[in-house]
Structure formats: C-alpha cells, structure tokens
Design goal:
Blueprint (H helix, E strand, L loop, with lengths): L1 H30 L5 H46 L1 E6 L4 E4 L1 H7 L3 H4 L13 H12 L4 E8 L5 E12 L5 E10 L1 H17 L4 E6 L5 E4 L1 H7 L18 H16 L3 E8 L2 E10 L7 E8 L1 H36 L8 H32 L3 E3 L1 E4 H11 L1 H7 L2 E5 L7 E4 L1 H17 L6 E9 L2 E7 L25 H4 L5 H11 L3 E6 L5 E8 L13 E3 L3
Helix pairs in contact: 1-2, 9-10, 10-15, 11-13, 13-15
Length: about 550
C-alpha cells in the first residue's frame, strides 16, 4: 500500500515537473534575449523537469515518515502505560525499565539498572528464569506466566512475552520483556476452584464476617441443612441460629475468639438435632475484612459406633471387675506378709503386678463411668457451691503430682467475689483433676500451669493452661475420643487410661455446660469448660437431690 501511494505521488511529480518545464521554455524567451536565450530556456526546462519530481518525492516521504513516527510514539506510550517493560543486554543485565514496572514492584531505577534480571525472581523460580534464557539465546520468543519478586519480598504474578534482540550482524544481543499483572485474576481463579471444591464437601462449611456476623458463603451441604436457597446468603447472620443450642455456642465461640485474639476453637454440640464436631478458624487479613471459617462435621455415625463399642466394653468390664478385684486383694495380702515373708525378688515382681492391677481397676472404673453416662444411669448430686473453693481443692489434690514433675500451679481469679453455682461438686472436681493432671504431665520441669476462673454473667468459665508442646493439628480432632492415641501422648511413660477427657466431656455436657480447647504446637494448650450458674437439670424430690442424666 505504501509503495503504491509512493508510485502515485512520483507520477504526479513528473507531471508537475513537465508542466513547469514547458511553461519555462515558453516564457523564458520573453525575459532572456540574445544568442544564449535558447540555451537558458532548454537548460531551465530540463532542470525543472528533473528536479521537481525529486523535491515532491522527498517532501511526501518526510511527511509520511513523520506521521508514522508520531503514530509509533503514541503506540509505545500506550504500551508503556499498560504493561511493565524491561530490556536486558547480552550479559543478562537490565539496561532499561519503564515507570510502571518500578511502580508495581516497588524498586527504584537505581535498584535495577545494571543488575542481573535474576533479581526479579525469587530462589524457587530461578530455574524458570534460566529456562527462559535458553529459549532467547536460541532466538525463540517465550510466552507464559512469571512470578516476580517485589522489593518487599511479596510475589506478583505476571503474564509475560519476551522477544530476543539481535545486532546488525544477527548476533543475539539481549531481550525485551513485556508483562501484565495477573495476580488478582489468578487469586480470583484460585478462590473459584476452592469454592467449587468446598461446595461439594459432605461437611457443612460456613464463612462468616467477623464484624457483622453475616454469612458470606455456605456450601451445598449447609444450604440443604439450613434450607436457604438463592443468592441471598448475606441476609442471614449467626443471630438467626441463636435459638439452636449449637448455633448459640458457635456465636459465643466466635465472639470469644475476637476478645482473646485466638486463632481457632473446637468443640462438639448439637444443631438441628444433629451432633456435630465444630471447628472454627479465625481468618485475618490486612484489609480489616476478618472472617470465620466454620466447619461442621456430622458425628452421628461415630456416636452410634461408640455406643455399640461402649456396650460391648461395658459388658466385658463388668465380667472382669470381680475377678480382678479378687486378684488385686490377694496380691495386697501377700505384700502385707499375710502369707509369710517373701523373697526380695518375688516382692519386687509382686509390686509391679499390683501396680498394673491398680491401673486396670482405674480403666475399668472409667469405662463403667462412661457406660453409665451413655445409658443415662450416672447419678449427679447437685448442690450450691463456690467454684473458687473447688479449684483450690483440685490444686491441692494435684500438688504432689506437680511437685513430682517440677511444675508450678498458679490460680487466677480466686480473689474476686465468690462464684456461686448449682452443680455437682464431686463431678466438677473430677473434671478439674483430669485437666490439671494432664497439664502437669505434658509440661516441662519449671513450667507454670495456670488455672483461671472467670465470671461470665450467667455462666462460670474455668481454663487450665499449660506451656507444653501443644497438640499436633492432625490429632486435635481425636482429643475427646475414647482411647485417643495421639502422636505425642507418651501414655506408657506419663500414665493415664486415655478415657479421662471423654469422661470430662460427658460430665460437663451432662451438667449443661460446654468443654473445648485451643492449642498451638510449641506454645502450649488451654482447656476450658463453661458451666451455667443455675442448673438446667431437673432435680428429683429427695433430701439429697440427685439426677440421672441421659447421654
């Protein structure tokens, strides 16, 4: 097209030159006279005919080139504003970077000019940079996704086109890279994939805003259970579920995590008449858009399986208890020399057998307690008590254990007004003893175990915090299971039956309360239980009110 236009304009130049030559040849004799007039006329006509097309052609070429240069400058300016551009020489040093690249990455021009282009890649992506270099040195263009390291250490994802550059002799002399930021679109795509995966999970998944407590997402399983249809999820909040025991507990746990700056919480409760293991994660970000990720795992099958196991174990336990008691009693008589003196070696072996018989009796008692709770046959004697007194009694009962492990027991909140409530003091002390003894066993010598009591209006909250190694995340869901086998439990050396926390959960829930824990590996564990000040149990008419509770 350009050649065609140039040809057309050149022909026009010859026509104009010819016309000017003819006019000069005809007009010049009237101006010049003498013998040389014909010569002047002829030379002038020849000059005009020859030079006019050249002048016109140069003028047109200059105007075309200026227009093309202006158009190219405008295009480069648009590219410079839209994309990040850098130029690299044959030594892989950056020689040019545009303003947008500096703005997006946080570097200054002096930070990059003269530096190796590898500076824009973190250690995990150096292999990609070297692969791109190989393509360019072969004279091939490279296109794809490149993660760039910003000055603050963050990673920005870009879509990049890199062209090799060559000198006049055809030798590779560097490259030019044009990049566009795809970080946000990449994040949105990842969130879409995550959302699709969450949507198909069998567990109920909720995402709730921390500031308003309104829902931002529920997966398909949760929608079916909640009965919510359409897109109006954000119109619902945790308050809509507060009439349900589990919904009220979830809302209280979320608010408590904000107050105490906790990152996670786990407990079990009932929602819509379905038993759930509830896990809450507090997700913070820099935009003050904190959210709660709430996962509800239906444990109906597990509870039914535990019930069947409990029935079987309970039957076996009842059958074992009587002969084991007889064996233990006989060994006790022998150790007391009721049958005469025994050899020293025999006494040592008998003491080992007697201690293990004691342990078996404890296991059987715990199993029978669980069976009674499951069958609704465990009796609770309710009385008006001061929780501070119960904590002091539990601390005193565990003093010998804390001394043995070199642990300091600290009690907080006992100097305030009495925290009176109506509950079963013996069962509460049983829970306290279990939590305090566990905290001592899993702490290091010189650590402090803190027992804290706090008034929460209609409830009393007790926490037992240790400074131990914490509970591994993969094991946290097992904590309240029977015979839970944790990676760092070391039950053989620290003692215990593996049933204590299961019994604690059953007792606390039977008393109308909730129990749970927070833990971070390397930072210790905090167990807590919350009991109502006014018992929700119905007392039987008697001089010593007792209550049989259902599981």
């Amino acid at each position: 097209m350009f050649i065609q236009k140039l040809t057309d304009k050149t022909g026009m130049g010859f026509a104009i030159g010819t016309a000017l030559a003819c006019g000069w040849y005809a007009f010049s004799p009237t101006v010049f006279s003498g013998p040389s007039s014909n010569t002047v006329a002829a030379l002038g006509a020849i000059a005009l005919a020859g030079l006019t097309p050249v002048v016109i052609a140069k003028y047109n070429l200059h105007r075309t080139s200026s227009g093309r240069a202006l158009s190219m400058a405008q295009r480069l300016s648009a590219l410079d504003r839209h994309a990040m551009v850098n130029i690299v020489n044959d030594k892989h040093q950056m020689t040019e970077v545009n303003d947008l690249l500096l703005e997006m990455t946080g570097y200054s021009r002096s930070d990059l000019i003269g530096e190796q282009v590898l500076k824009l890649y973190d250690a995990t992506n150096r292999a990609l940079a070297l692969q791109i270099r190989t393509y360019l040195q072969r004279g091939e263009m490279w296109q794809g996704e490149t993660p760039l390291r910003c000055k603050d250490g963050s990673i920005m994802y870009t879509h990049c086109t890199i062209m090799p550059l060559f000198d006049t002799k055809g030798n590779w002399s560097g490259s030019i890279s044009v990049r566009t930021d795809i970080t946000q679109s990449r994040q949105l795509l990842a969130e879409h994939h995550v959302s699709e995966s969450l949507h198909e999970l069998r567990d109920d998944i909720w995402i709730v805003r921390a500031d308003t407590e309104h829902f931002t997402y529920v997966n398909a399983a949760a929608r079916r259970r909640l009965g919510w249809q359409g897109t109006g999820i954000s119109a619902h909040s945790l308050g809509d579920l507060s009439h349900q025991p589990g919904g009220k507990a979830i809302r209280a746990a979320c608010r408590r995590m904000i107050e105490r700056d906790e990152s996670s919480s786990q407990f079990e409760d009932t929602l819509f008449d379905v038993p759930f293991h509830i896990s809450i994660k507090f997700l913070r970000n820099d935009q003050n858009d904190a959210r709660f990720l709430i996962v509800l795992n239906d444990i109906s099958d597990r509870i039914e399986q535990e019930r069947r196991q409990s029935e079987f174990i309970s039957t076996v336990s009842h059958e074992l208890r009587s002969p084991l008691t007889s064996i233990k009693g006989s060994m006790g008589l022998m150790l007391s020399n009721a049958t005469g003196d025994l050899p020293k070696k025999a006494v040592g072996l008998l003491e080992i057998a007697h201690r293990n018989a004691d342990r078996l009796v404890l296991i059987l008692n715990d199993i029978l307690d669980l069976e009674k709770i499951s069958a609704g046959k465990l009796e609770f004697t309710l009385d008006d008590v001061n929780m501070c007194d119960l904590v002091r009694e539990a601390a005193e009962a565990n003093k010998s254990l804390s001394d043995r492990f070199g642990i300091t027991l600290e009690m907080v909140g006992l100097d305030e007004l009495p925290l009176n409530l109506r509950t079963d003091p013996n069962r509460v002390i049983q829970v306290l003893n279990n939590l305090v003894s566990n905290a001592c066993k899993f702490s290091k010598a010189g650590d402090t175990v803190t027992i804290r009591v706090r008034d929460e209006g209609e409830n009393v909250r007790v926490t037992v915090r240790d400074q131990g190694q914490g509970i591994p995340v993969p094991d946290q869901h097992k904590i309240f299971q029977k015979f839970a086998d944790l990676a760092n439990s070391a039950r053989s050396t620290k003692g215990g039956t593996g049933l204590g926390l299961s019994i604690c959960k059953a007792i606390v829930q039977s008393l109308g309360g909730t129990i749970g824990f927070t833990s971070r590996e390397g930072s210790g564990t905090t167990f807590y239980f919350v009991l109502p000040k006014r018992s929700i149990m119905k007392e039987e008419a008697s001089s010593e009110p007792t209550l049989r509770v259902a599981s």
